Amino acid sequence: MALTLRRGSRRLTFSVLSAGAGFFAMLQSLITPVLPTIQHDLHTSQNTVTWVLTAYLLSASIFTPILGRVGDMVGKGRMLVVSLAALALGCLLAAVAPTIGVLIAARVVQGIGGAVFPLSFGIIRDEFPVARVTSAVGAMSAIVAAGGGLGVVLAGPIVATLDYRWLFWIPMVVVGLTALAAHLFVPESPVRSPGRIDWRATVLLSGWLVALLLPISKGTDWGWTSGRVLGLLALAVVLLTGWLVAEIRSTNPLIDMRMMRLPGVWTTNLVALLYGASMFSVYAFLPQFVQTPTVAGYGFGASITQAGLLMLPMLMAMFVAGILAGRLESRFSAKAQLATGAAFNVLASAMLTVAHDTRWEIGVAGGLVGLGIGLAFASMANLIVSNVPARQTGVATGMNANIRTIGGAIGAAVVSGVITAHPQAGGLPREAGFTLGFLVLTGLSLAAMVAALAVPSGRRAAAHHRAPAPVAAERSEAPDLVPAAAGR
């Protein structure tokens, strides 16, 4: 069915949001399988090339909540265009990067695009009728989840057919056109949160995120007991404490701590932390497992393309589960979906622990992981959206995405340490390392499931929900969903 090319068309708005969020999610995983290729082409070391991932992670962790808050203040549509333009510019710089330093700088610019997640959820809440918000958020979450999985699948064929620079050229073209479409067709937000940026809180937030994520990401290379790692972790604690104090005392907080203390918010964020730890580890280490040469006594010696194809069941399952999640919420609550998604992850990780000798076992386990991710992404987003005032949707969903990223960094670091602790004579990990790693993922998934059961039910969440403070001239906040486009 053709889209109506007019400003405010819900279908066109959703298509634009989906393209931006989907390609940002894809860029999170698209580069991982080809790091050795980039290392060889740009004549750099293995330690240096990992900054292509680390720089992206750090940049996105900083800009996602901050630009989500700015969008709540000055307009989500406006900041969506800024974020997409930055993402397209970063892709252009990466595509032509002559040195590893330029490529790392380009990835920092790309990280600004992380704000498309909270901004997209906020625009959906502002522009869609109340009855359609849940299904739209679920569908958007499915696209985000599938985008991350699609990156693993597409990386091999693109590099084999063209070269790794097309991993940036293709997103640049699509994201650039998406930014133009967002400017032309996505309506500006009717819901605003007046105020100004608290720069002290912004600097403290950026500081503790970098001080936490940098040693977690580089701990294996630097040594977990090294002065750099321990010093940065200590600095993270100090800066986090300072940030919390500054936000609590501020009359115009960057992130309202009263909002973060809402039962439906902090419990969902706890699940995001634990779920991110297991999810990102599967993305990172399942392809590595299947690419392990058979001379190691396990693995399948798969190429990058073959490893991507083995991930297809996971990709398809997460997309279908995410699409169905929002539509099923009237019968199958977001809390129930979140717990069920975590349970699928428990089952998949437990299966990988004891059964990983054949391709069909990897495919089935990947499918279960996909079902879990699809349900969890959609339900987490809906739980956050339904538990915060409309004026704080951007910053709240941005922090949820950030906490999931922090969990992913922690989980990947822990599982990497477990897998590589006792390598074989040739340097390859032992099968026992992967087995223990999958067991750790089972424990993380089980903890996420228990945390999901602590999320307040719909009635309890509604009873606990309190808007932090009324804002003059703000539109109706009962129940804080603004059907601004209902008449369109």
Secondary structure layout plus pairing:
Elements: H1 10-30, H2 35-41, H3 46-49, H4 51-74, H5 76-96, H6 100-111, H7 116-127, H8 130-161, H9 166-185, H10 199-222, H11 227-249, H12 257-260, H13 263-291, H14 304-310, H15 312-328, H16 334-354, H17 359-387, H18 393-419, H19 431-453, H20 458-464
Question: How does this structure look, described?
Answer:
The protein has 488 residues and is an all-alpha fold. The chain starts with 9 loop residues before the first helix and ends in a 24-residue tail after the last helix. The protein folds into three domains: 181 residues, Up-down Bundle (Growth Hormone, Chain: A), CATH 1.20.1250.20; 56 residues; 211 residues, Growth Hormone, Chain: A (Up-down Bundle), CATH 1.20.1250.20. Helix 4 runs antiparallel to helix 5 and helix 8 runs antiparallel to helix 17. The longest helix has 32 residues. It has 20 helices and no strands.
